[in-house]
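Exercise 7.
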Amino acid sequence: MRTTETPHSTTKPFAPLAKIPQHIGMSLYYVQKLLYQLNRDPDVRRRYDNDFNGLIEAFDLKEEEATAIRKPNLGFLYVLGVNGQILVHYAALRGIAWPEYIEALREGLQTHGPVRDGVYAEIGYEGVESHTAAILARRELHRKGS
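Solution. The predicted structure, written as tokens, is:
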């Protein structure tokens, strides 16, 4: 059973990535775990309120990831592969409204290129405009074929 003194299973005391040579893709996991726990765990939320930098340092993140979380740079986090369902809650926590959230994702794709990792990379997601264009093209083909 976890207590407030017990570290989360994703913190450095349990799994320092520097000691896992086969570590591939785990950094994204830790970014998402941190953001997910901010939304779900009252202890993590208190630590966010009281010691944000200490909380970030408790997770094995690359410097670019930690910086993106601190700013917050939602577009860059998205391009790194953070799931949109997790990211939208972090945006709300940081006081970013829906239109600004969507714009930040668009800017991230324009600035940093396509999504690099995670589920959106696996399915080849290239952003709202591209996705919408593909849907409209399929509808047009279906309409012509009917």
